Fold Glycylpeptide N-tetradecanoyltransferase.
Amino acid sequence: MASSSGSANNGNTEDSVPADNEDLMQMSRKKIEELSNTIQQCLSEGKRHAFWETQPVGQFADRGKDLEEGPIEPPQDVAEVRQEPYNLPKNFEWCTCDLNSDETAAEIYNLLTTNYVEDDENMFRFKYSKEFLRWALQPPGYFTSWHIGVRGQATKKLVGFISGVPAHIRVRDKVIIMAEINFLCVHKKLRSKRLAPVLIKEVTRRVHLENIWQAVYTAGVVLPTPITTSRYWHRSLNPKKLIDVGFSRLGARMTMSRTIKLYRLPETTVTPGFRPMERRDVAAVRRLLHSYLSQFVVAPELSEKDVEYWLLPIEDVISSFVVEDPESREITDFCSFYTLPSSILGNKNYSDLKAAYSYYNVATKTPLLQLMNDALIVAKRNMYDVFNALDIMENQTFLKELKFGPGDGHLHYYLYNYRLNAAMKPETLGLILL
């Protein structure tokens, strides 16, 4: 199992492409992207992945073979699972991180803020708030034992972390209890100590102790073997700031004033009955999500308790909106985004980038394009700089229309101890990991 980590707001989109060049540039980008992906895949397949080749995951060498879909290894008897933690390198020790402790939450926040995912050019780094981490790591049925830290024996300083949370994930017509693995992070100065594989083995051991044998995770690099690869797209909300900090660049033959005008949004939402989600909406939202997500190959199976936990609004963490029909009072549509700022590295004028990430959206009566435009309006009104979305689910139907630009960041999805017969297209995936 590995961490869920994509590119840290790695935009590098070219803003404001003139309409007459747009199709040509999109074709060029697509060809370059396909070539880049092919090269990256070939390089990854050609090199040894010493750790992952020992794990029950899809292997590059298995491609084209007629292998049975499903678990790669059968479950063990829990009594046979290793009882003691794996050995760490000398001078390090395990700890279990209690997110309810302000001190521990601050330690995890500081470790991730200074050492977690950066973009390829080291300009931005994810900045998870303590409130976000608690939301992400304490869902219904969570195990504190899956919040695993490594400390220096002498200093007691937190230098490594990995986490898991339980989730019901449907793969085709089978619902499986899995661990969602996330936030694998090792202090930059200790990357040569080979702590990451030990962290992965230890979280795997603790997951197995709960009689759970499958997991899902994401990574920004190609490992054996992705079930699908998605791409981040970015919609400028504050184009001047994004260009000033190097997240975006000014398009050909475009001025700053024309760029700002291009991305201007209305002041108010246009959909009648569009409002923040409330507790009384949980059952209706759950029904919408259950029906919508059933069309995808891999998707979460959410109970009302899950919907209440993951989707009720929390300021600066998760924003959710419903459309309530003014006449029937029926909840017909739903959209949501979570808040994940990034630190801006080495810029004297700006320190933070406020980013919204598209989460789960369901449109049954309101056109999805209109629903998402309302989400953009709300984000802009709340001073977000950029709105990000992956090209999974039905997102591809609105990305270009709403002036999202393709970024450099790719996110690869993986299953642990579960084989799919063939790689999925991003639009057949219905799962978002934080």
Summary: Confidence is low (pLDDT under 50) at residues 1-10, 16-25, 38-46. The longest strand covers residues 158-171. The first helix runs from residue 19 to 46.
